[in-house]
What we know:
The chain has about 170 residues and is mostly helical. The chain has a domain at about 1-50. Helices cover about 65% and strands about 5% of the residues. A hairpin with a 5-residue loop joins strand 1 and strand 2 (about 10-15). The protein is elongated and about 85 Å long. Mean pLDDT is about 85; it is low at about 45-50. The structure holds zinc ion. Zinc ion binds near residues 6, 11, 22 and 26.
Amino acid sequence: MADYICNQCNKKFSRKWNALRHNKQIHHELAIVYNKATGVDFKNSKESNTTTNYDPFYEQEIEDLNIVDIFGKLMQPFIELEKELVDVKESDKINYISTLIIGALRSSDPVKIIQDAVDFNRSVKGKVKIVNYVAKHMQIPNVQAEQYLNQIIKSSRYFKNYSKTNKIRY
Ligand SMILES: [Zn+2]
C-alpha cells in the first residue's frame, strides 16, 4: 500500500514518516509529500525558497556523505588499534590493518570487528606484562610463569563458567 507520494520524484511510500524522511534526506525538505487518497499535503518542518528541482546527482552526494560518515564511525576503534600496534613492525602493521579493515567493512558490524581486534591486541600485550611481573616475583623464566598462570586460570571456576558462554569466537 503506497499512500504517500513525493511530488518531486513521484516516489511512493506506505508510511508518512518514511516519505518525510525521504524529503529531508533527498530533497532538503523542498519537496511536498501528499496523501494519494485524501490529497492532503505534508510539509516537513523546514521551508525554503531555493530551487525545488529534483537533482539525481544529489542522491550520489548523499551516498558519498554516508560513506564518509561510516569511516567516521570506525575512527575511535581504529585510533585505539593504531596505539596498540605502535611497537609492531611497519610492514606487519600495513598487512594486519588493511586485511582487518577490508574484512570489517564487508561485515555487518565493522565497528565491532575493529573493537574486538583492539581488545584482542590489548589483552595479548597485557598478558605479556603480567607474565613478566609474576616471573620476576617468582624468579622463574617467563615461559614458566605463563604456564603457571595458564594452569591457574584453567583450573578456576571462573574459567569453566567463562568457557561455557564463549565456546567459539568466530
Ligand atoms: Zn522524492
